Structure to design on (334 residues):
């Protein structure tokens, strides 16, 4: 079936193409087009299932109504959940969200950012890997909001939490509750500042309680080969340190694979094992053993990031004063 064109609408209704275009793009009142004419055009459009050409609309309005959403791994439940809340807010304003995984790779991230610019994305929301991509976005004068990760000296709008304080306070509370805890820590990609801050917070919690944390109990597993790395390193650690009876996982990916490793090869130890993870998942309520979760406010992070970007889009001033919103976490004890 042939598509209805704007020229056909104009011819059938006896109106100019310009008038039809103004009404389609929501500018009828601005150009003092009568309400009756606007209603007549809208009724015709509905009856004939007219769909505006997005490229033509972009040329007319200067907007593509697309937003880039860039995260290390879109399959990560944490980033997927936040993306859903971002999309809920932006879709109400007519924007579509394009979700991409950067794979923790700066070159991949930059290529995706450049593609977004070429496709005339109106704005970008991202959990960045390096400052390079942020500098490029800024050079293109595109509205940008970052979340989860703060890149030092980047001067980018940010929504997230205080990873150091959240980690330190949670581990302090955990050790206070569990006086006999012999804890090991499992992390990955320590070059990522959120994870390095969580590691530092944990170590400082031990120091302030006057406790020693042996260096070989701080595991750095391989992000690119996470399951095998957890199996190997947790196995080696428990063989060398059978006294370990608790684990701190610095994100939900290490927790998920750590639980797999513990249940696969170390089930006899699980009855007395205590686990705590930064980030929380429904799995932790039924896992063996149950896992305490440091829950980030995913809905609030997503909604606040989207609203902040909308403010930038409406203000058309990407060089406005940098805004940073720090949100509280919640510990779900199990």
């Amino acid at each position: 079936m042939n598509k209805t064109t704007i020229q056909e609408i104009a011819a059938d209704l006896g109106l100019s193409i310009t008038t039809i275009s103004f009404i389609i793009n929501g500018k009828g009142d601005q150009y003092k087009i009568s309400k009756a004419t606007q209603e007549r055009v809208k009724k015709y459009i509905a009856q004939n299932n007219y769909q505006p050409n997005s490229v033509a609309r972009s040329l007319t309005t200067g907007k593509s109504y697309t937003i880039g959403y860039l995260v290390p791994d879109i399959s990560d439940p944490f980033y997927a959940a936040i993306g859903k809340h971002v999309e809920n807010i932006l879709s109400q304003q007519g924007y579509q969200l394009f979700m991409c995984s950067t794979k923790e790779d700066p070159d991949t991230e930059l290529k995706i950012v450049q593609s977004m610019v070429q496709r005339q994305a109106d704005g970008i929301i991202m959990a960045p890997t390096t400052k390079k991509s942020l500098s490029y976005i800024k050079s293109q004068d595109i509205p940008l909001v970052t979340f989860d990760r703060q890149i030092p000296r980047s001067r980018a709008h940010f929504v997230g939490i205080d990873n150091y304080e959240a980690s330190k306070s949670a581990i302090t509370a955990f050790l206070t509750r569990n006086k006999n805890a012999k804890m090991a820590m499992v992390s990955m990609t320590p070059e990522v500042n959120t994870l390095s801050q969580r590691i530092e917070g944990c170590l400082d919690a031990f120091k302030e309680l006057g406790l020693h944390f042996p260096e070989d109990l701080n595991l750095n597993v391989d992000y690119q080969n996470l399951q095998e790395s957890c199996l190997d390193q947790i196995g080696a650690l428990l063989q060398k340190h059978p006294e370990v009876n608790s684990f701190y996982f610095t994100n939900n990916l290490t927790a998920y694979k750590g639980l797999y490793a513990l249940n696969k090869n170390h089930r006899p130890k699980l009855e007395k094992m205590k686990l705590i993870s930064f980030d929380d998942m429904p799995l932790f309520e039924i896992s063996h053993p149950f896992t305490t979760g440091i829950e980030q406010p995913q809905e609030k992070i997503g909604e606040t990031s989207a609203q902040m970007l909308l403010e930038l889009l409406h203000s058309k001033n990407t060089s406005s004063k940098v805004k940073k919103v720090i949100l509280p976490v919640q510990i779900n004890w199990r």
